[in-house]
Every structure is written in C-alpha cells, then in structure tokens.
Amino acid sequence: MYTQAMDLAPKEERKAAQSTDEAEREARFEARIAAGDFIEAKDWMPEHYRKTLVRQISQHAHSEIVGMLPEGNWITRAPTLKRKAILLAKVQDEGGHGLYLYSAAETLGTSRDQMTAALLSGKAKYSSIFNYPTLTWADVGVIGWLVDGAAIMNQVPLTRCSFAPYARAMVRVCREESFHQRQGFESLLTMMKQGTDAQREMVQDAVDRWWWPSLMMFGPPDADSPNTAQSMRWGIKRISNDELRQKFVDACVEQARVLGVSLPDPDLKWNAERGANDFGVIDWAEFWSVVGGDGPCNRERLAARNKAWDDGAWVREAAMAHAAKRSIREAA
Amino acid sequence: MKPTAEWPLWEVFVRAKAGLDHKHCGSLHAPDPKAAIQLARDVYTRRQEGTSVWVVRSDQIIASDPADKAMYFDPMEDKVYRHPTFYELPKSVDHM
C-alpha cells in the first residue's frame, strides 16, 4: 500500500528489555494494546514500536506528496473547467494528507526536515504506484477509481490504529478520500457512456496499464511479509496484504462491469467454493524492480521533489527572515 | 539538501460553527502567526469545517505529564457523589 515498503525490510528482531523496570513498562504497554487502548504520543512506548511507526507514517506521508505528481501532470490539460477544478481540489487534498501525516510522525520525535531529507535522498520509500506515468486523461480517472480505491481499502482499518495521532489523521484522510474515488469513477463512466469509441478505447487502455500495479499496492504476499505479524499484534496493521488485495479484486469486478471495461487478467473468475474471485499471478519481479528504484518514473519523481525543495528554499528563508524582522520591530 | 532553519510548529484549533468551542485539529509549520492562520485555513478548513481558527506555538503549550496520569486523575474515580446519578430520588421528582 502507501506503506508497502514496510513489508520489504528483513524481519526485525526486537531487542529484549534492558532492565526489570523496562520489562515492567513493556508488559504494561502490551496490556494496554491488548485491551484495545489508544497510545498517545507522550505515553511510554517500546523503541521498536516508535521506530516502526515513524517509518510507516513517514512513508505514508511521502506517498501522498509524491502522489501529487502523476495527477498534477494533467491539471493544465484537464478537458473542462469542471474537471480542472475537481482535479485541483483532489491534488490539494493529497498535499493536505501528507501534512496531516507528517504532523502525526513528528509527535514521535522526528523532525519534518529529517523526513524530507530522507525522501529527497532516496533513502525513504513511497508507494510503488506513483512511479508509473500518466499517459492520457483517462489515467486520471483510473487513478481515482483503482489507486484511490485501493488506498481507501487500506486506510479505513488504519483509523483504528493503536497510535492515536495516526488514527486521528486517518479519520480525516478517509473522510476526504471518498470523493477522490467517486470523481474518478464518474469521470470514467462519463467517457464510457457518453464518449466516442476512441475515448472508450483510451479508458480500456488506462485500465489495462494500471490494473496490475494497483494490485501490487497491497505489498508482497503475506508469506513474504516478515514484519506483518508484529505490526498486527501491535494494532498498527489490522488486515493482511492478501486479505485486502482479495477484497479489492472482488469490489472491482462489479465496478468494472458497471463501467463496461474488462480487467486484463484471463485467470480472473468467480470461485463459488471460496465465495471470492480467483485471479492471476502478480509479476513480482516488476514489483521489486519498481520498489528498488527502477520503475518507469522513479528518477523523474525524485528529481521533481528535489527541484521543488531547492526552488522553494529562498521562500522558506525569506519568510523566516521576515518573521524575525517583524518580531524585533514589535519588541521595540 | 541545504540545512536551513525549520519553520516553527503551531497547534491549530478550529471552531466548527458559532456556539461551539474551538477544538484541536492538528498542527502545521509556519514562519509567523499570520502565515500560520493562513495555512491553517488551507490545511484544515477546505470543506467549511470551521468559522474561526486559533493557532498557538506548540512550544508554548504546557501539558500535564503522562507519567502523572494516575496521580492526577485517578483520585476522581471514587468520587461518584459528584454525579447526579448518585442520588436516588422518588420517581415523581426524579427528573430534577
């Protein structure tokens, strides 16, 4: 998902408690989690819990920020004023979501600049999905339908995350995200029902290109996701990758039928026995290569973020200088 | 990445509508109070979530220590007589 790279790290061994005092605190912490309590930023927490959350929340934030780029690509070329206003609002929302999430991560004692530096240097990960190009206008609709649809499926359980500042941010994000998916679907539906043959082909082509990368958003299969169990125990992750992926596929089959598009998977068919859709094997080699930095747009995305940061440096400095000058004047 | 001073952190409080109190809704970085108000509007009230915004520097907030939670708040647990439901009254006057 937006934090799929959390599943890529090798299994982390937790350090044993250092002292009896620490062991006691840890036991109390585990009991709170088991009782379904929320943990607040200033509460005592094991170092590994803190580290895991900083990594997960900042990856999530980076994904929102980088996620502005593929769609931002179409703002100046949206076909109507209505679509342009919608797209602007959506991209602004993504920026806002990034800010809510960075704030939540900062409560854990990491600074905004540290997180930004990790993103810009390529050290921090963001979702693989944003390393694919948006070639046509239909891509914008498909991102709303499939990519935001997958994101919502993952984010709704996170509103019950044990770390309260993250859960609170996710409540706000989910409330806003629902419009993203609906506007995408509606845009595609308009093209499919009222458009020309060429427009319908454009929609189908976009679905063909985005379907598999969307399934990869849920991260590697559960068997290859070594840190899932610990995250589940801690209430940081509520539903496993494979379970969410299945839920997503099942939801999309009906939605694709309503749209009148086909999903590019010959093995996709209803399995009455399982009460779910079977689907084909995901190209994990592609997934690993995109995550490893060799997707179609990895370098472009990182270069765009670095340029934005560097170009904005004088604004950040000037604003601080202005604030300093004003406070001196006010003090005088 | 060139090291420059990070904009200070502000806590944001929004009044949803007249008659309600301001409620904490998140935080943001801004260089000065005026910019903080402006940014708070953009970040936290994009869907008419508010009619008024307060901001305060995060480092100006004094908070109780979570470690003192039990000492501070638990003594109220056994003072049930502070609640109206503690008092049993005859049915005919129980709405008081």
H/E topology pattern of chain B = EEHEH
- What is the helix content of chain A? 55-70%
- CATH topology type of chain B: Ubiquitin-like (UB roll)
Please tell me how large the radius of gyration of chain A is.
21 Å
Ends apart, CA distance between termini of chain B: 66 Å
What's the end-to-end separation of chain A, in Å? 53 Å
- Please give the CATH architecture of chain B: Roll
Label the structural class of chain B: alpha+beta
What pattern of helices and strands is seen along the backbone of chain A?
Answer: HHHHHHHHHHEEHHH
Strand order of the largest sheet of chain A: 1-2
Overall spatial form of chain A: globular
Which class of chain B in CATH terms? Alpha Beta
Morphology of chain B: elongated
Fraction in helix of chain B: 10-25%
Radius of gyration of chain B: 21 Å
State the total count of DSSP E strands of chain A.
2
Derived from helix and strand composition plus strand pairing, the structural class of chain A reads: mainly alpha
Please describe what this structure looks like.
The complex is a heterodimer of chains A (332) and B (96). Chain A has helices spanning 20-34, 47-66, 68-72, 81-106, 112-120, 137-158, 164-194, 197-216, 228-233, 241-259, 284-294, 298-311, 313-331; strands at residues 269-271, 276-278. With 332 residues, chain A is mostly helical. In chain A, helix 2 (47-66) packs antiparallel against helix 4. The termini of chain A are far apart. The mean pLDDT of chain A is 94. With 96 residues, chain B is of the alpha+beta class. Chain B has one domain (9-91): Phenylacetic acid degradation B (Ubiquitin-like (UB roll), Roll). In chain B, 18% of the residues lie in helices and 22% in strands. Chain B is built from 2 helices and 3 strands. Chain B has helices spanning 33-44, 69-73, and strands at residues 9-15, 22-29, 52-57. In chain B, a hairpin with a 6-residue loop joins strand 1 (9-15) and strand 2 (22-29). Chain B is elongated and about 65 Å long. The A-B interface holds A 40, 42-44, 89, 92-93, 96, 99-100, 103, 106, 111-113, 116-117, 120-121, 169, 172, 176, 309-310, 313, 316-317, 319-320, 322-323, 326-327 and B 1-7, 9, 25-29, 31-32, 35, 42-43, 46-47, 63, 65-67.
